[in-house]
Write a structure and sequence with these properties.
The protein has 445 residues and is an alpha/beta fold. The chain contains 17 helices and 15 strands. A three-stranded mixed sheet has the order 2-1-15. α4 packs across α5 and α16 (392-405) packs antiparallel against α17. The radius of gyration is 21 Å and the shape is globular. The protein binds N~2~-(3-carboxypropanoyl)-L-arginine (SUG). Residues 20-23, 26, 29, 103, 105, 108, 110-111, 139, 178, 247-248, 250-251, 363-365, 369 line the site of N~2~-(3-carboxypropanoyl)-L-arginine (SUG).
C-alpha cells in the first residue's frame, strides 16, 4: 500500500453569495429566500474553517469560485449586445433567470464531482467525474467550469483521469460526492465505495413532496467508468429522508476510514448493503464500523436542521477521529446530547469542533457540503498544479482579498445591477494570481 492522505478541497464562496431561494427540496434555501446575505462574512467563515483544519494538522485545498453572474449562459439563451445590455434585458424578461445565473452555489464542492482514489481504481489513477447537477438550472450550469477547474488543477495524466459529466435529460441526475462515501482501513488502502441514489432515472414517482436528485443509473455509470464497480455498494436513500429535506445523502450520513456514521432513517434498507460491505471488506483486511444514530436519540427533523451528519469526519495526525460540525449541531439539544454521549463512550468519535457557517447553512450547506475529498499519495499531491493547497500565508492573502472585493450585504434584487458583474470579475481576476491558476475564467480568455 502506498500511503496517502485525504485532502479536503473547500469551495471558496464567491462574491455573489445570496438567498435567491433556488433549491426546491432544500428547506433552508427555500426559507431563506429574500433575506440579505453577507458575502464577505460567508467567505470569511469558510476560510476560518480551512485555517482551523490546517492548525489541526490536516492538508487543506481550495477550489476557485465560478464566474457569476455567468454571462455566457445568457448569451447562450440569445441575449446579445454589451454585458450591461445583456444583464438589463435578462432582468426584464425574468429576474429569476438572473438569480439563477448569479448563484454562488458552486461553493458546495461536495457536489462538484465524484472522486475515486488511485488505491480503488482498476488503472491506479485518481478518477474524477464532474456532477451534472441536472436537478436545477442554477446548478446544471456548473459542470463545464468544474471540469475545466479540475482538469487545470489535476492536469498530470500520469496520475489523474477525467470523465465527462453524465448526459442530462429526464431524471438522470448526478450530485457528485454528496451521495458518495468510501470505507477503507486507512485512506491509502484499497476501499469500498458507497454510491447512494434516490431513484431510478426511469421510474415514475408520483405525489412525492420533493423529488430525489440522484439517479441509480448515474451512480452506476460512475462506478463503471472509475473502475471501482467490483468493490462498490449501491444504497437507496429513504423516501422519508428526502421528503423531510435530506436532498443529498450527506445530510444524513458521512464516512471516514472504516466508519459509516448515519441516521437510522437515511436509507430504505441497510441489511443487504451492510452484509455486502462486510463481505467486500474482509479480503481488504478491515471490518466496517456502522455507527447508527437512532431516531429516539436524534429525530430526523433535528438531524436535518442541525446538520449533525453534514459534518466532516476527519482522521487527525494522532489517528483519532474528530467531527467538524456547524454551530447548529451544538445549539440543537438532541444532537448536542448525542455528541456528548458519543465522545464519552468508546466509539470512534473522539472530538467535536463547532464552526460558525451560518451564511452557507442558510442555503442548506454545512461543513461537508463545502468540501470535496480527494485522497492523494505523496506523488499525486506533488502533481497538483497551482497554489491551491493552502498554508497560512496564502490564507492571509485570501482573507485580505475577500475584504478588498466582497460586499457586506446582498439582496436578490442587487443581482440585477450590472456593477456586480464588474466587481466580481475584478475579484476573480485577482484571485487567479493568488492561486496561480492562469487564465481560468471565460472573461480572461
Ligand atoms: O444544491 N443550495 C445547495 C446546497 C448544497 C449542499 N450540498 C450538499 N449537501 N452537499 C443545493 O440545494 C441554494 C442556492 C441559492 O438559492 O442560490 C443551493 O443551491
Amino acid at each position: 500500500m502506498t500511503p496517502a492522505k485525504e485532502i479536503n478541497f473547500d469551495g471558496l464562496v464567491g462574491p455573489t453569495h445570496n438567498y435567491g431561494g433556488l433549491s426546491v427540496g432544500n428547506v433552508a434555501s427555500m426559507s431563506s429566500y429574500g433575506s440579505a446575505s453577507n458575502p464577505r462574512a460567508a467567505a470569511r467563515q469558510g476560510l476560518s474553517k480551512m485555517r482551523a483544519l490546517i492548525r489541526m494538522g490536516l492538508t487543506q485545498g481550495v477550489l476557485p469560485p465560478h464566474e457569476r453572474p455567468f454571462l455566457p449562459a445568457l448569451r447562450q439563451l440569445g441575449f446579445t449586445g454589451t454585458d450591461q445590455a445583456v444583464i438589463e434585458a435578462a432582468a426584464k424578461v425574468s429576474p429569476a433567470l438572473l438569480y439563477n445565473i448569479s448563484s454562488a452555489s458552486n461553493m458546495w464542492t461536495a457536489n462538484a464531482a465524484t472522486v475515486s482514489p488511485s488505491a480503488d481504481s482498476a488503472d491506479g489513477k485518481v478518477h474524477f467525474t464532474p456532477a451534472n447537477l441536472s436537478a436545477m438550472y442554477h446548478r446544471s450550469i456548473e459542470h463545464p467550469f468544474t471540469a475545466r477547474s479540475l482538469q487545470t488543477i489535476f492536469a498530470d495524466d500520469r496520475h489523474f483521469a477525467h470523465h465527462e459529466a453524465i448526459p442530462m435529460g429526464g431524471a438522470m441526475g448526478d450530485e457528485g460526492a454528496a451521495n458518495h462515501g468510501r470505507l477503507s482501513a486507512q485512506h491509502g488502502a484499497p476501499g469500498i465505495e458507497q454510491f447512494v441514489y434516490g431513484r431510478s432515472a426511469f421510474e415514475k414517482l408520483e405525489s412525492w413532496r420533493f423529488l430525489p436528485r440522484q439517479a441509480y443509473e448515474a451512480s452506476h455509470t460512475i462506478a463503471r467508468r472509475h473502475g471501482v464497480l467490483e468493490t462498490s455498494v449501491f444504497m437507496r436513500q429513504s423516501r422519508r429522508a428526502i421528503e423531510a429535506g435530506a436532498f443529498h445523502n450527506d445530510v444524513v450520513g458521512v464516512t471516514n476510514g472504516p466508519v459509516l456514521f448515519y441516521h437510522e432513517a437515511a436509507y430504505e434498507e441497510t441489511g443487504p448493503a451492510f452484509d455486502e460491505m462486510r463481505r467486500l471488506a474482509e479480503p481488504l483486511g478491515f471490518e466496517p464500523i456502522f455507527v447508527e444514530v437512532p431516531e429516539s436519540d436524534v429525530p430526523l427533523e433535528d438531524a436535518i436542521t442541525s446538520y449533525l451528519f453534514n459534518s466532516q469526519l476527519v482522521t487527525l495526525p494522532d489517528g483519532k477521529m474528530a467531527l467538524i460540525l456547524p454551530g447548529e449541531a451544538e445549539a440543537t439539544e438532541s444532537t448536542r446530547r448525542y455528541l456528548e454521549g458519543a465522545m464519552a463512550g468508546n466509539g470512534p468519535i473522539s472530538a467535536a469542533h463547532f464552526f460558525d457557517l451560518k451564511q452557507s447553512m442558510k442555503n442548506g450547506g454545512g461543513p461537508a457540503c463545502l468540501r470535496l475529498r480527494v485522497v492523494l499519495t505523496e506523488a499525486e499531491e506533488k502533481a497538483v498544479a497551482g497554489g491551491v493547497i493552502l498554508g497560512e500565508a496564502r490564507l492571509d492573502a485570501l482573507e485580505a482579498w475577500v475584504d478588498a472585493h466582497y460586499r457586506e450585504e446582498l439582496l436578490p434584487n442587487d443581482l440585477l445591477d450590472p456593477q456586480l458583474l464588474i466587481e466580481s470579475r475584478t475579484a476573480l481576476d485577482a484571485l487567479t494570481q493568488i492561486l496561480d491558476l492562469g487564465a481560468l475564467y471565460d472573461f480572461q480568455r
